[in-house]
Every structure is written in C-alpha cells, then in structure tokens.
Backbone:
C-alpha cells in the first residue's frame, strides 16, 4: 500500500513523504480499515512538526479522522465485522491505503452516510457536539458565538447550535467564509475583517452578551470573547489556530460568574496520559450517536470544501493552512493506494 510517512519531525513539505508500506495485520482487539477518505487539518501540521501536545512515535502516518471499510479484524473484536462501513478516530494512519486501529475507535455508519460526511462527523462534528452538549450544556433559546465559523469544527458548531435551538452568531473572515457560515444556519454573521466582533455581538444581543462562546482561535479573540459574554456564560476553548495560547484573566470570570472549560475529544479515545479507551468508550459512543441522529434527522449537513488525491497531500495541507478551504479538506484514497 501507499502511505504518507513521517520519519522525523519538521515541516510537512520536507518531512512527510509518499512511500510504500506493507498492509498492516490486526492484533487482538484491533481492526484494519481500508481507508476511503481521510481528513487534513491545521492540527496535523503541528503533529508533523512535533509541536502538538501529543507526539506520535516515529515513524508514523498522519491522519486521525478516517472513513472506510473493515478489511480484517483481530481476535476478540465484537464491535465491527469485515465489510462494515465505518468511521474512525484513529491514533494515526489515516493518510494511507490501510489503517490499523483499536476496535473502540471504530463506529459503524449506515449506507445513507457518505464516506466524506463520515470523515467529517467522526472528529469535527463529534468535537462540536461534545463541547456544546456534554461540556457547555447549550440550551434552546440561548445565544452561541462561534469563531472560525467557516472551518470544519466551526461549521459543525454552527449547525449543531441551530439544531439545539440556539441563536447562532458566527464570526468568519471575508465574504466567502461568511456566506459559508450563513449557508449552514447562522442567524447573524460578523466579518472580522470589517468589524470588531465584540461591538457587533453586544449590538446584536442588546448589550446582554452571549451565553456560550465556541473558541477555536485563542489569543486576543479569547480575551474579547470573555468581554462579550452574558452573566453565567460558558467559554469553550477548543484550539489555538492563531498560534497563541491565551492567559485568561480570572477576575473577568469572577465578575460575571463565567465558566471557562476545555474540550479535547482525544482524551475520550485514550490519547492523553493516564487515560484508557475502555474507560470512556461509552461516552464516545453516546456523542457519536448524537451526531448520527442529527444527521438522520437532516439537521446537520457536513460539507467537504476540497478533495485531493493522496499524491497531493502537500497541496492539501497548503490549502488548509492558507485558509483556502471552507469546511473540511480531505484526501481521497484510490485503487493505486491499496
């Protein structure tokens, strides 16, 4: 099979190369998936550079969000069978022809879910669902502010927020990205290239502020978001696309009884030190089931913004980092990759 291989950390254009590898063999409790679609993301560039909070052992094939067909199963596997259509949050290996994963990372999908949709839902939508439902407890009638609303997790947050009955204020940069957020259900859209979002949020909410902030940007955006929040608001810190991890002023949390909380889906998959997949599998399954239910009800419509072949992995990464893609950027595996 063909796969993207990283043998030492660094820039993806220098350290991520297309190579031939043997098809993996599953061990006990493991599944080998023939990959059909794999996600590409900003976080992936950090993983390849060795700058992510979790470093995979070298060498590795990048790619944690993947959809495909079960190729083989190891001893004791009960969740899936050969031939099942699945979506997986894997430790690594998505950008290759085949991928070996723990069975607890696999979630079966029905025929009405495309592989492209599944590759988005398994990570981006489950992240947003877990953050908004499990952590923030977003309720019908509340107001949700979504930053990075044209990106993969941002679009997911907009759609899920609307499905939960919230009023959604989306922040994006440029007309194209703003149109994307509007198309996916945002009630109000703020172009941060034109307006300061804090002033617009207070104007939209008649000075009350928002109940929940979905922040995947960090830096000064986080600071201004706290100043845009209502009494007993909840701040969700999801990531730091601007490259700056904010230092949150605790006094601002105190003044309005604001809660600041993080959400890392990987923790539930056992990717954090001291955690085991088996301890959280039931929670992951519950969040994934919530996402699939919304899809079956037609309340979410994942949109892939760009599709690249595996041979153009570098170009796919360029498109993501240069913010040329609305929604999700994916790699599509072909017969030549198996």
Residues:
């Amino acid at each position: 099979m063909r796969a993207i291989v990283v043998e030492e950390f660094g820039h993806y254009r220098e350290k991520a190369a297309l190579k031939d590898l043997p098809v993996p063999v599953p061990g006990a409790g493991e599944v080998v998936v023939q990959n059909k679609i794999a996600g590409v993301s900003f976080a992936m560039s950090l993983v390849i550079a060795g700058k992510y909070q979790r470093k995979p052992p070298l060498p590795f094939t990048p790619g944690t969000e993947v959809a495909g067909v079960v190729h083989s199963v190891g001893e004791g596997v009960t969740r899936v069978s050969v031939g099942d259509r699945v979506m997986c949050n894997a430790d690594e290996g998505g950008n290759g022809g085949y991928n070996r994963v723990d069975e607890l990372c696999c979630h079966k999908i029905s025929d009405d879910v495309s592989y492209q949709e599944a590759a988005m839902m398994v990570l981006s939508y489950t992240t947003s669902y877990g953050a908004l439902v499990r952590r923030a407890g977003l309720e019908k009638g509340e107001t949700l502010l979504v930053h990075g609303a044209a990106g993969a997790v941002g679009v997911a947050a907009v759609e899920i927020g609307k499905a939960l009955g919230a009023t959604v204020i989306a922040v994006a940069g440029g007309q194209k990205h703003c149109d994307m957020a509007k198309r996916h259900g945002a009630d109000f859209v703020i172009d941060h290239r034109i307006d300061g979002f804090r002033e617009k949020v207070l104007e939209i909410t008649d000075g009350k502020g928002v109940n929940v902030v979905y922040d995947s940007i960090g830096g000064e955006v986080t600071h201004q978001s706290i100043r845009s929040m209502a009494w007993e608001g909840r701040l969700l810190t999801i990531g730091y696309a601007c490259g700056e991890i904010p230092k949150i002023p605790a006094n601002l949390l105190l003044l309005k009884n604001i809660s600041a909380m993080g959400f890392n889906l990987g923790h539930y998959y056992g990717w954090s030190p001291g955690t085991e997949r088996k301890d959280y599998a039931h929670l992951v399954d519950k969040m994934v089931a919530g996402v699939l239910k919304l899809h079956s009800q037609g309340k979410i419509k994942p949109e892939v913004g760009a599709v690249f072949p595996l041979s153009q992995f570098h170009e796919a990464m360029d498109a993501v980092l240069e913010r040329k893609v609305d929604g999700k950027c994916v790699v599509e595996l072909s017969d030549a990759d198996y």
In short: Residues 115-135 form the longest helix (21 residues).
